[in-house]
């Protein structure tokens, strides 16, 4: 149960398969509140059969949806957005209960998540083709943009709402249908979205939410030839597996995978702004985002000053149950996440890093971990290479631009990066030299519906959000008209 919901219809213990609500059977999945370990509800454990049914229903619904005018699709999406905003407190409560982030942050995610539905409800009407001068006197060349067809989506637990809307918004706006498998830790936020989607008037079968076996559902999604695009947010390891599985049916892939974001503070930075940016880039969602600052590089001249200010700010962060007042950081999602954070901190300290604050499990127990700042961190430590995905800020020292660019780019990942500097020439040089899909300059918060989100190298393929985002769900068709 989830306390204090205004509209209990939003918390539904069922999956939506091909237009039918399916209740949990005896092998249902328990969903737990990571702050307390309590079971908040159960969802069905579905597999390949249900995935196939959902894909076939999506295929059937898609043609009619694509045939509607863009304005009609836009209006339904706009209603979905309005319903999300009107129910943001309830959606936030469901999210906090299953994911753990503080309620204020959860409601923030709902507003952010809704912004993708709003943005793409608008973009639906701006899917323009092209007319190109012909190559012969009697020829005309016309370019049409058409929906790619049925889209399968697999989403993670760290943003149980926004990672869905960032995919569903452009897919449905473009005239595609979607079959979604949310993370098993956080299915209720996805289900609540489906409830609101029905209320908004999405046609039956157009949007299914399948809870259950990732492997079985994933195998059907990747193997089924009706699915023309797979969009996935999660680990690079699973992304690569899905890429392999999708090869025989030559699907278009959208992959938002892991990161290892550098956050660079140059000597000429505004230090207070850099500390504020680091707090957001590192500790938002308790460090569990793929754009979280993973490695903080501070130039020699400001190292001690920055470390002191960051330590003071981090010592003031309050960890606790996301439903409690004034809490900044919730629990980690599960025991494996806690073990990874402990491993990274233990490895760094054993190799000579110094704990400035934190560095241990939190006294609240469970999967709570103290927000941590480490100084004296070096390239041979685990935190330099792997994504920690927790509330740990490791401070590396650097001397000069070339040194830090080399270190920042010395990773197979390339999602987000950040730096703080004031010299305008340096700002351009560094921004261009960083091998990342996104660069935050003098800001720690870069995600927004208006901008293209995505990575290079092992961080993925494609972009989400912005006018580029809808392109990912469109095919380009060329008409050659002769005899004119
Ligand atoms: P995370 O570390 O964020 O949990 P994962 O890549 O393990 O990253 O999970 C992201 C999503 O991928 C989740 O919805 C999960 O259920 C799903 N998933 C995990 N393994 C597979 C698989 N073999 N096939 C399809 N989906 C999978």
UniProtKB/TrEMBL annotation:
UniProt keyword annotation of Signal present: no
InterPro entries per the UniProt record, alphabetical: Ald_DH/histidinol_DH (IPR016161), Ald_DH_C (IPR016163), Ald_DH_CS_CYS (IPR016160), Ald_DH_CS_GLU (IPR029510), Ald_DH_N (IPR016162), Aldehyde_DH_dom (IPR015590), Aldehyde_DH_Superfamily (IPR050740), Succ_semiAld_DH (IPR010102)
Keyword Oxidoreductase set for record: yes
Family: Belongs to the aldehyde dehydrogenase family.
Name this polypeptide is given: Succinate-semialdehyde dehydrogenase/glutarate-semialdehyde dehydrogenase
Any one Gene Ontology molecular-function term assigned to this protein's record: succinate-semialdehyde dehydrogenase (NAD+) activity
Location of the active site: 256
Superkingdom classification of source: Bacteria
One GO cellular component term: cytosol
UniProt-listed CDD domains: ALDH_F5_SSADH_GabD
One BP annotation, GO: gamma-aminobutyric acid catabolic process
Annotated ranges, domain Aldehyde dehydrogenase: 21-478
Pfam families from the UniProt entry: Aldedh
Keywords: Oxidoreductase
């Amino acid at each position: 149960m989830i306390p204090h919901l205004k509209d209990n219809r939003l918390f539904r213990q069922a999956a939506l398969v091909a237009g039918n609500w399916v209740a949990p059977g005896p092998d249902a999945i328990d969903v737990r509140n990571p702050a307390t370990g309590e079971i908040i509800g159960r969802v069905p454990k579905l597999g390949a059969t249900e995935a196939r049914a959902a894909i076939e229903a999506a295929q059937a619904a898609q043609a009619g949806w694509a045939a509607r005018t863009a304005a009609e699709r836009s209006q339904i999406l706009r209603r979905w957005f309005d319903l999300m905003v009107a129910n943001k407190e309830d959606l936030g409560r469901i999210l906090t209960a299953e994911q753990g982030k503080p309620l204020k942050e959860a409601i923030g995610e709902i507003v952010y998540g809704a912004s993708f539905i709003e943005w793409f409800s608008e973009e639906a009407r701006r899917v323009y083709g092209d007319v190109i001068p012909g190559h012969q006197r009697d020829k005309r060349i016309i370019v049409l943009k058409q929906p790619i067809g049925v889209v399968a989506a697999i989403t993670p637990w760290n943003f149980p709402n926004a990672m869905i809307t960032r995919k569903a918004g452009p897919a449905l706006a473009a005239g595609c249908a979607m079959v979604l498998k949310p993370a098993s830790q956080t299915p209720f936020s996805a289900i609540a979205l489906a409830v609101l989607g029905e209320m908004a008037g999405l046609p039956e079968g157009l949007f299914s939410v399948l809870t259950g076996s990732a492997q079985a559902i994933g195998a059907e999604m990747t193997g089924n030839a009706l699915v023309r695009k797979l969009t996935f947010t999660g680990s690079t390891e699973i992304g690569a597996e899905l890429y392999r599985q999708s090869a025989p049916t030559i699907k278009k892939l959208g992959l938002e995978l892991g990161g290892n974001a550098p956050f660079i503070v140059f000597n000429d930075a505004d230090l207070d702004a850099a500390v504020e940016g680091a707090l957001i880039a590192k500790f938002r969602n308790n460090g569990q985002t793929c754009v979280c600052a993973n490695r903080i590089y501070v130039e020699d001249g400001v190292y001690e000053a920055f470390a002191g200010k960051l330590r003071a700010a981090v010592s003031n962060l309050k960890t606790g149950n996301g439903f409690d007042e004034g809490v900044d950081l919730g629990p980690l999602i599960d025991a494996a996440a806690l073990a990874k954070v402990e491993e990274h901190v233990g490895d760094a300290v054993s190799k000579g890093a110094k704990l400035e604050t934190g560095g241990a499990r939190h006294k609240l127990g469970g999967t709570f971990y103290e927000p941590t700042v480490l100084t004296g961190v070096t390239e041979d430590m685990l935190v330099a290479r792997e994504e920690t995905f927790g509330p740990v800020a490791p401070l590396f020292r650097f001397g000069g631009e070339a040194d830090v660019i080399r270190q920042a780019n010395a990773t197979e990942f390339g999602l987000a990066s950040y730096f703080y500097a004031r010299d305008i020439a340096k700002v351009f040089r560094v921004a261009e030299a960083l091998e990342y899909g996104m660069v935050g300059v003098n800001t720690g918060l870069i995600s927004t519906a208006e901008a293209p989100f995505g990575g290079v190298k092992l961080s993925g393929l494609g972009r989400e959000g912005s006018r580029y985002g809808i392109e990912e769900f469109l095919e380009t068709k060329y008409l050659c008209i002769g005899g004119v």
